[in-house]
Amino acid sequence: MDLEKIITKFNIPKAANVAIHVCKLKKGKTVKEYKYLCNQKDNVFHPASLIKLFNSYLAYLQIGKQKNPEILRAIKESLKVSDNDALGLLVDFNSNTNSGPDLSQIQLAKFLQARGTITKYFRDKKYSKNLKLACKCFSFGPFGRDRQLIEIDGANQISLEDASKIILEIYNKSPQLLEFMKRDFKDKEDVQTKFITAGIYKKAKNVFSKAGWNSKVRHDTAIFTINKQEYLMTILTKGLSKRKSLIAQIASSLVSNLT
């Protein structure tokens, strides 16, 4: 399916954006890939809860063989149920910071530098130059120094390639984290099965995914198997959050063309 067919079939307006990345994998490496970006000049998305992939992976690397039980619990809750409180602990742990009231100019500069170490780690690993990972996810915030951070440095952001790269890195290097992301479409309490999983479950096995959503974006990135062949699929959308079944519909259409 080419880009124009995707735009036409799913009635994607010019003001919105859909970015799609599909890879055929062999032993965890990409052997064939397809990319579709409906707005070629706009490959920067607010990640919503996809940021939990980055912070979970970094925290897992930091604890190493110590396997800190509370950090592991936060990683599990971040990936499995997309819990924002768990993410908050991971951001604090990864950056050695704490949320709290407004800071003075000098204190704020140190806070911003510390939070920026999360972004720096992944940029140093050849993730995109537009990547920003310093902010937590909030239900009603941000408040205090977290608000100050966004006012100065802006919100989190990722590219299509960043989302695919982090799930593939977890797939290849962190089996325990991957297990936290295993999806079963029959699990009606798992909201994250309403995205890519809902579009591929009839054909796919061993689905591992992480979704992210808010009032402006809806995303999912997944690795799965069809007929013993592994695939990676990432779908990011902006300005289409009211169309809650769109990602599942696109995934279903893409899978039909893969098999």
Describe this structure as you would to a colleague:
The protein has 259 residues and is of the alpha+beta class. The protein folds into two domains: 1-35 and 182-259, Beta-Lactamase (2-Layer Sandwich), CATH 3.30.450; 46-158, no CATH class. 43% of the residues lie in helices and 19% in strands. The protein has helices spanning 3-9, 51-63, 69-80, 84-95, 105-124, 144-153, 160-173, 175-180, 196-200, 246-258, and strands spanning 17-26, 29-37, 205-213, 217-226, 229-238. A five-stranded antiparallel sheet has the order 2-1-5-4-3, with helices on both faces. Strand 4 and strand 5 form a beta hairpin. It is globular.
What is the H/E order?
Answer: HEEHHHHHHHHEEEH
Report the sheet-strand fraction.
Answer: 15-25%
CATH class of the largest domain: Alpha Beta
State mean pLDDT (0 to 100 scale): 94
* Strand order, largest beta sheet: 2-1-5-4-3
Contiguous runs where pLDDT drops below 50 for at least 5 residues: none
Under CATH, the topology of the largest domain can be stated as Beta-Lactamase
